[in-house]
Write a structure and sequence with these properties.
about 120 residues; 7-stranded mixed beta sheet; about 0% helix; globular; 4-stranded antiparallel beta sheet; mainly beta; single chain
Amino acid sequence: QVHLVESGGGSVQAGGSLRLSCAASGYTVGTDTMAWTRQAPGKAREGVAAISTGGISTNYADSVRGRFTISQDKAKNTLYLQMNSLKPEDTAMYYCVASRLPGSSWASPQYQYWGQGTQVTVSS
């Protein structure tokens, strides 16, 4: 059974940083696409950052490119999201996801496995 457990969320002021972690069990990090998605109150879920099989390439939503960095540690079987220069509009529940499904897009991320989420709140 696959479990993805996020941690590292919290409350910060604008301009601050947070590092999210996603510990995987029953699933080997690096064997398929993994990503971070987020959902703000009253808004649709959206993709934030993705990392390809083997960590060969990364991709980011325009709204976070240059501020967020996705990475993975295969030895720890963990996915990370380093978030710098945080803005109030980054406030959302952040989800770790794995194994992208056909039809998945930034606007409508479709993944086989989802974590429970970790809350990020950025105050101005």
